[in-house]
Amino acid sequence: MQIATTIWSTIIQLMSIKVPQPDNPIILEGLWGLGKSQLAHAYSHKYNYELVSEPLHTNHPESKVFKDLSDWYVKAHKKQEFYLNKSLPVIMERSILSTFAFLYALKRPVPHHLYISSFQHLIENKKILVVYLKFNEDFSSWEHEDLKRYSDDIQEILTKKEVRARYQEWYEKILPQKYGILPFQLRVSKRGIRRETNKLINDIYLALACNRIAQINTVCFKKASIKEEMQILILKRSINKGNFFQTVTGGIHIGESPLNAAIRETSEELGIPKEAINPFWTPLTYSFMGDDGYELDEYVFGCEINDPSFIHISKEHDSFEWVNIDQAKQMVKFENNKNAINEVYKKIGQLNEELP
Questions:
Q1: 3-state percent breakdown (helix, strand, coil) of the chain, nearest 5
Q2: Domains of the chain as residue ranges with CATH
Q3: Rounded to 5 degrees, what angle do the CA atoms 26, 28, 29 make?
Q4: How are beta strands 184-187 and 189-190 bridged, if at all?
Q5: Which secondary structure element, helix H or strand E, spans residue 22, and what is its range?
Q6: Quick one: which of 122, 202, 261, 350 has the most CB atoms within 10 Å?
Q7: Which of 180, 260, 181, 177 has its CA nearest to residue 216?
Q8: pLDDT per residue as tens digits for the range 160-200
């Protein structure tokens, strides 16, 4: 489902259709100095969300903590969680996820995993949109920041490139793969220039309205024996959906993990029971501009189909074929799809080498 079902911004603008206002709780995460508070206040004002500001943690006269934030940060963030269960829509600056990212970046012991496991259930049940304000290294915001207002630990994160990279790695890789929590990646800059707050607000609104925070791309394959050449499954989309070949693709819903989305989409598109689907992660992730007008990340999985006779494709596809690697790369339409096939083929080789 690479083409989104509804182009929300166009419908709203051209047809003046009243779309139900999304009221999912929102959590804003990300490094300091990226405009998180400004974004939270602006979104709260525009859509009538209750604002929960982040706990004081800087060298502020009212703050009791100046250096070591570890234990205090956990307790402060746990106190915030009751706001997420309120009936009114809430937008919150930071959560306990920040505690883990903060300590992971500084290579310190993180809190017990049960903290984040229980939080994952809350995110899934309440359909909370976790937004990660993503930066690019060409973004020089911190060069102009008054860093003295931050604690020593935060100054270390903001001034050291390798520590910032670990902070970002937590949200981009560790959180979705280890804990099943996927943040919506919101780019705060393009080509080194900060994006306007109203554009960031629009991206969040569209992600909520479309219930799509990212994409999965699952390359399905079969191997009759070790000696036989691997076969790739490609699906031909119906005429009204583009009439081109691709692998299994689809959107990741709010509160859904990439792995669960890969299982669900593979089951929906191939008619295979979920319990028979066992995808594996690959390191490949790429981004593209979605048809609904906001940027999405796509996560690539591989999945062996043990019994191809079970396949019954969905109505959004006209046909499917089993072809070899070279044929598959020639037949799929998008370059990202070709790269996904290459990545899965490489990953399978690595997995085979690890077998005893």
A1: 45, 20, 35
A2: 8-209 (3.40.50.300), 212-351 (3.90.79.10)
A3: 140
A4: unpaired
A5: none
A6: 261
A7: 260
A8: 889 999 999 999 999 999 999 999 999 998 877 889 999 99
